[in-house]
Amino acid sequence: MTAVLELRAVEHVFSDGGHGLRSCSLAFERGQRHALLGSNGAGKTTLLQHLNGLLRPSAGKVCLDGQPLDYSRTGLNALRQRVGLVFQNPERQLFSALVEEDVSFGPLNLGLDAASVRTRVAAALDAVGMSDYGQSAVHHLSFGQKKRVCIAGVLAMEPSVLLLDEPMAGLDAPMQLELAALLDRLCARGVTVLLSTHDIDFAYGWADRMHLMVAGSCIASGPAGQVAQQAELLRAAGQRLPAALALHALLTARGALPSSAIPRSVDGLLDMLRTPYSGKIPA
After folding, report:
1. pLDDT-based confidence at residue 281 (cuts at 50, 70, 90)
2. b vs e for 100-130, b when ≥16 Cβ sit within 10 Å of the residue's Cβ?
3. Cβ 78 vs Cβ 125: under 8 Å
4. What are the distances in angstroms from CA 194 to CA 31, 104, 105, 247, 249?
5. 24-81, pLDDT tens digit by residue?
6. Are residues 170 and 260 both part of a single domain?
7. Are the C-beta atoms of residues 217 and 24 closer than 8 Å to each other?
8. Structural domain tally of the chain?
9. Can you give the residue range of the structural domain that contains 257?
10. 183 and 265 together in one domain
């Protein structure tokens, strides 16, 4: 499978001498759901900002479709049309008075005509469930609504890659479900989605591939079902085993479930328990 974005031995040293990335090599396959996990300070946000061209490597290369990024003004504009980034804090991304104005900013900068901009804005707001808020003042919105507007602003650019920094942070459970459903719809349309998260259970159940970051380097990358079973690597990245895996191992050891079928969520585990199993229960 072709990597749409790739870091090749990327180093990043901040102005104060601190290291954001250390010889970080990582590839993100096109059309996949990617989850980036690691403790605070592991380099997740720094990595996302390199993929969008907000930061430049001190050494190494970032590639799009196999070609090193072009950091000229024209090159960065082209990159950000294809690779959209949603910040963790919406206040960093919202700057217009009204919702429609904010979502219109990107398409207008592309030089689109007014009718095309209106069409894109309407579609983006509809995608995030904010169609009724176009004329609302941004500062009157809740935190979760502001996050949705940020996502709409990126979607209005019609990117092929969507980067999200801790998108679930600050959202209540229903809004997290809505956001997950939106990401599923985008993936179904062929958009490559990469998000950073501390929620190992969500990452394990949602992602096609998981990537573990420690001290600016990627220590594990692969199919979510495989990476999630690497207990030592998870611990090194400040993570635990997903609850579904831990519970499945316990129930398998007690003979209540077969070891062959491994669930990707607690709900999946409950479905397995509802199905009669003829295995022997140890004394």
Report:
1. very low
2. bebbbbbbbeeebeeeebeebbeebbebbbb
3. no
4. 10, 24, 23, 27, 29
5. 999 999 999 999 999 999 999 999 999 999 999 999 999 999 999 999 999 999 999 9
6. no
7. yes
8. 2
9. 242-278
10. no
Candidates 77, 68, 167, 185; CA nearest to 126 is 185
Whether residue 137 contacts residue 81, with contact meaning beta carbons closer than 8 Å, is answered with no
pLDDT surpassing 50 at residue 266: yes
Dihedral angle computed from the Cα positions of residues 131, 134, 137 and 138, in that order, rounded to the nearest 10 degrees:
70
Task: Give the global pTM.
Answer: 0.91
65 three-class SS: coil
Whether the CB-CB separation of 69 and 79 falls below 8 Å is answered with: yes
Cross-strand pairs, 193: 33, 162
* 220 and 254 fall within a common domain: no
Same domain for 7 and 134, yes or no, is yes
* Structure confidence at residue 272 (pLDDT): 82
- For helices 114-127 and 143-155, the axis angle rounded to 10 degrees is 130
d(CA 4, CA 30): 5
- Residue 257's nearest CA partner among 283, 281, 222 is 281
Determine how many CB atoms are found less than 10 A away from the CB of residue 140: 10
